[in-house]
Amino acid sequence: MENGAVNQQIPVDTTSATITIKGILSLLLQNVDENDNKRLISLGMGDPTAYSCFHTTQVAQEAVVDAIQSDKFNGYAPTVGLPQTRRAIAEYLSRDLPYKLTSDDVFVTSGCTQAIDVALAMLTRPGANILLPRPCFPIYELCSAFRHLEVRHFDLLQENAWEVDLDAVEALADHNTVAMVIINPGNPCGNVYSYQHLLKIAETAKKLRILVIADEVYGHLAFGGKPFVPMGVFGSTVPVLTLGSLSKRWIVPGWRLGWFVTSDPRGMFRKPKVVERIKKYFDILGGPATFIQAAVPRIIEQTEEVFFKKTIYLLKQSSDICCDRINEIPCITCPNKPEGSMAVMVKLDLSLLEDITNDIEFCFKLAKEESVIFLPGTAVGLKNWLRVTFAADPNSIEEALRRTKCFYQRHARKL
């Protein structure tokens, strides 16, 4: 390793409980050669706002400006969120459900990350464990570690389009298991679960008497053969905690407007003690800015379908280009074309490389030599894979993968 960069900055045996995507990407950025004239291209972070082809709708911008200029939303909001914001989110999510959510089911959070923290905080108790997918968005592991919540991993089956290994879920669960997490559309895999598979997940969770935490931050960003189906559709079978945000669908991750929703028509979460505990926890949290909350009803009600269709078109186009170019590079393959979200998992074949021993070393050398950044698969629990974000303009994707091909040719094992 050049100058021992990887060994000094990010040990190969780093545990997933200490990993964050931003932390690893920060180290990779530090490894970029500042004397290189190449433009930095990062396909490591799921932030489409970095590229000019992705931008939010004008309605959203106007709604925020009007909320600020009204001079009505400069004070504190209720800790659970503005009533009109909670109501608008409930109505928005109810469009795809066989029952109606109410504003009492909705709690406004500072992005989906805070919703994740709330969900785990509400479920933590001595001796409890939670079932997480592998690969998985690493914040779940990190939050669980802070909560002293034991983590047990079930695999997502790459050969079955990253479906949940339900046999493993049943084998892992015991009387101390409080919930299982699913992310749909998938981060980091780009998968979209079918209605039938989600039904099987619900039935398995019911059998095991555990909750389902449904991370739907990429909700509706599906462009393959399967439509997006919210897990809350099965709320009558098993209680569901639905987590989401404006971030991805409206392309405003920096606005930090998310939600924690009890998708539970049978009312388990409406028990007075449960509701009171959730509300008390929100009393110690800082939610999104009041004026952002105030803009939500108009954003949801007035965003035209053409805006969503354009985003889907751009993601489908960029994902196709990404996979096609990846498959032109011998040492990496894209075994499952993404059907949704903004990222795809790419398999790394180290046997074709001369002087690279793992995914972390690959990413550090690529950053240093080509000013291209991918996320090492180790960061999401899958060693010797890469997560590549395709929420970028086609030219940037083409250039990043052209450089990656040059990188491969430079490091290819001599026959």
Task: Describe the protein's architecture and organization.
Keywords: Aminotransferase, Pyridoxal phosphate, Transferase. GO terms for molecular function: transaminase activity. It holds the Pfam family Aminotran_1_2. The chain has 415 residues and is of the alpha/beta class. 38% of the residues lie in helices and 15% in strands. Helix 5 packs across helix 6 (139-146) and helix 11 runs parallel beside helix 13 (394-411). Residues 1-13 have low confidence and may be disordered.
Major β-sheet profile? 8 strands, mixed
Average pLDDT: 94
As laid out across the biggest beta sheet, the strand order is 2-9-8-7-6-3-4-5
Strand content: 15-25%
Distance between the termini: 22 Å
Structural class of the secondary elements?
alpha/beta
Radius of gyration: 21 Å
Number of strands: 14
| Total of helices | 13
Poorly predicted runs: 1-13
So what's the overall shape?
A: globular
H-E string: HHEHHEHEHEEHEHEEEHHHEEHEEEH
Structural key phrases:
415 residues; alpha/beta; 8-stranded mixed beta sheet; 14 strands; 38% helix; disordered N terminus
Give me the secondary-structure topology:
Elements: H1 5-9, H2 21-30, E1 41-42, H3 58-69, H4 83-94, E2 106-109, H5 111-123, E3 129-134, H6 139-146, E4 150-157, E5 163-164, H7 166-172, E6 177-183, H8 195-208, E7 211-215, E8 240-245, E9 258-263, H9 272-283, H10 290-302, H11 305-326, E10 332-333, E11 343-348, H12 359-370, E12 372-373, E13 375-376, E14 385-389, H13 394-411
Parallel strand pairs: 1-12, 3-4, 3-6, 6-7, 7-8
Antiparallel strand pairs: 2-9, 4-5, 8-9, 10-11, 11-14, 13-14
Family: Belongs to the class-I pyridoxal-phosphate-dependent aminotransferase family.
Cofactor: pyridoxal 5'-phosphate
Domain Aminotransferase class I/classII large: 40-403
